[in-house]
Amino acid sequence: MLMAEAGASNKGLARRVRDVAMRHGARVGTTHVSVQRWLDGAGIQADNAAYVAEALGAKLGRRITASDLGFVGLTIRPAPVGISYAVSLTDALGVLDGLTQLRPEDSSPAEELPHDNEVDSAVLSWMVSRPDGLPTGREGPRRIGMRDVAAVRTANAMFMRLDFLFGGGHGHAALRHYFRQEVLPLLNGGYSEKVGRSLFAAAAEMGEVLAWTAYDVGNHQLANRYLLASLRLTQVIDDRMMGATILANMSHQANYLGRIPRAARLARAAVEGGRYRATPRARAMFAAHEARALSNSQDSVGASRAMNEAEHHFEQADSATDPEWLAYFGEAELIGEFSHCFRDLERPADSMRFAQLAVEKTAPQYARTLAFCRMVLAQSQYLNGDMDAAVATATTAVREGESLRSARFRHYVTAFQRRISPHASHAVVRDFNEHVRVALADSEDE
Q: Do 47 and 154 sit in the same domain of this protein?
């Protein structure tokens, strides 16, 4: 074996591959995990195969080719740019390994989302596929235990808190690094059935947060890829509740981007996919996302039905034990979703009432949610004919949300500015626009 002949460890080869890539003007995220996956027969990108050959050739003092390394006949995996649902667990982990090498700022945030057919095919695969089952017979460099799982869950809770407090831009890079360096090696390790189920559940939860932070900073294609990769992880252990939650998040994103029919289909898939396995609190969230999509399509009858279903499920929320990652979906969150629905249905009085209640009930730890609710309140006040109150509310939202690194919050603010643009000569509007200009400029300088 050429690695043994060269006396190269996994970590040593990974470092040499990164150095070779840099000499070629490229940046790769190769680690010892990547090397082990290649040794186990996983696919490799064509450029990486060439870098590995050059790195080992330099160490051995002779020319080495990809064929010498045994890559001939194996899958040369392109960079994971699609959203196709991974066929195998090995492929799914490979996709996640590739995604965690990507920074949101390195690719265009304006890239188009995949075609509806691709998304629908992936969702159907999740809906009808049987669970893979865990590879519990696999030997790893060390045995994974419940303490390892607890560490992952603790880290995920910390990153979720950071996301809510300061926006996705504050935690995405660190979370990506943690997932790549700490979580992926665990998934490739050895574990019991009990540990494995908990481990894959925790990994899917963290993948969902990775997706959410990418969404919040505005890279929607990357967010979609994380969501589908995390959805695939839920299939391994048949975690229908987390899988349905991921579908609901995909609906949320599609609705935000104006892909309303897709948003409605994804919300329905979440409702049906989690119908018999999700807690009442989760089912309330799924129904609320359906209401959001239907409201945006001006289907007032359907939206009212979905809001009633969400309210009905939420009334039973205390009858079941929820996972910690669902704790954020409380009364304030549900009311906030309803305020968005009424705004989109052009019922400003109802939207104003619900948004005001959401602002009053949202805890400070959910700073981004509070900022969103204030902006919805401002929009509703404007639509209700009170521009001075609207601008005052929006000013508070911008002042309190200055520390948020969130493209979505910026979108709320600029959308409000467009709303009030017919009154650009009004003194309070001029003052508000200047306040926004300074606040956003300051946040970019941080």
A: no
Structure tokens at 273: 């996919």
For residue 256, CA distances in Å to 205, 370, 431, 444 come to: 22, 17, 28, 23
Say how many C-beta atoms besides its own lie within 10 A of residue 123's C-beta: 22
- Is it the case that residue 95 has pLDDT exceeding 50? yes
Residue 257, beta-bridge partner list? none
Position 312 confidence tier, pLDDT thresholds 50, 70, 90: very high
Range of the domain at 356: 338-446
CB 429 within 8 A of CB 420: yes
Same domain for 89 and 56: no
Give the tokens for residue 6: 């060269």
The answer to whether residues 114 and 7 belong to one domain is no
Q: How far is CA 329 from CA 40, 217, 280, in A?
A: 41, 21, 11
Tell me: do 56 and 100 sit in the same domain: no
Residues 49 and 122 in one domain: no
What whole-number distance in Å separates Cα of residue 428 and Cα of residue 425? Answer: 9
Residue type, 365: Q
289 in any annotated domain: no
For residue 222, the surrounding DSSP H or E stretch is helix 220-237
C-alpha–C-alpha distance, residues 207 and 185, integer Å: 14
Q: Give tens-digit pLDDT for 254-284.
A: 999 999 999 999 999 999 999 999 999 999 9
Tens digits of residue pLDDT in 145-162: 999 999 999 999 999 999
Q: Find the range with the poorest average confidence among 15-29, 127-141, 184-198, 235-249.
A: 15-29
Enter the DSSP assignment of 404. -
The two structure tokens encoding residue 370: 């509070």
Q: Are residues 99 and 231 in the same domain?
A: yes
Regarding whether 114 and 35 lie in a shared domain, the answer is: no
Number of structural domains in the chain: 3
Asked if residue 81 has pLDDT above 90, the reply is no
pTM of the model: 0.81
Domain match, 105 and 213 both: yes
